[in-house]
Amino acid sequence: MDIIRRPRVSKEKTNLMPGSLLYTGKKRDEEILLQAIIYNADFFEEKTIKSIDELKQLDLKDKHLWLNVTGLHNVELIREIGEHFDILNLTLEDVLNLGQRPKWEEYDHYFFQICKMVMTQSDMIKHEQFAMVVGKDFIVTFQEDMKDVFEGVRDRLRNAKGKIRTRKPDYLSFALMDVVVDHYLIIIEMYADRIDDLEDELRADPDPSFINRLSTLKKEVNWLRRTVRPIKESVISFNKSQTPLIEKKTTPFLKDLLDHTTHLTENVELYMDELKDLMDHYNNQMNNKLNDILKVLTIFSVVFIPLTFMAGIYGMNFEYFPELSYKYAYPIFWGALLTVAGGMIYYFKRKGWL
Fold first, then answer.
1. pLDDT tens for residues 192-215?
2. Structure-derived torsion over alpha carbons of residues 81, 171, 235, 5, reported in degrees to the nearest 10
3. Residue 114, burial from CB neighbour count under 10 angstroms (0-12, 13-18, 19+)
4. Which domains does the chain carry?
């Protein structure tokens, strides 16, 4: 399972004033989709918004609004949405910056959360930026593509499952973040299975592609670590916030969300350490194999040193060699060579070097 890499964000933001709205993703031609869910304990309506004027005409008396914005490439429309909900340009700037670090910010009349949302797509991991602005009676979420991980939350709203229809948007924001964190947990456990497979393979005799697969896996888990660390920081800020937009009865759920996020970050760190141990184990294994090969070559070299010396003596071009005239000189010479070689090999075996 590999991570689908998104194109690098635009570098045109250099030297722009704070609050300048610039979409840093790839240019698109399709229209931005605005999906509205209007709800309270006794009412539910789901509709597609065609224009800002239609958005302004919604009847929200004693109701809550979840506006989901799919697509961020129409900067002017994003600006108009911000003006309608009184969202600061500094916040919209972060929404449009696809390389924005996950964070949580609090303002007078809304709070803001941004992070990476991950999901599985065939054998790949797809990720995209997800942002939400939560006010007293509204929540506006921003995402890049149609596919997301929130269909279960929508189903709970449609069918009035649990407490979600009776609570304010702060509880809905918790529910959305809880789903995001849960999907991280699902994906990191997939990586845990792959790590276990690599451990089993390492105990056997790994093939030459092992180190490449291990390095790729380590790189992907490291990407997850860089992503989930700031998510935990933002969830901590979410828990510590004293904003009146968060009801006290939502606090226990936020603590549970923090527990899940802590569990996620601990697992990522644990699996990262396991991958480092696997890398060290593999390198040690390769070094041991290399040392065994060098030891054998060294022993053979040592065995042949005296043999080479003896052969060198009788290979010299002196005119008189008394031994050469002896009838059994040649077999005696070979016997001496084999005796020396055999004696050295026997000695090395007794020492446990062979």
1. 998 898 888 888 878 888 889 889
2. -50
3. buried
4. 2-284 (3.30.460.20), 288-350 (1.20.58)
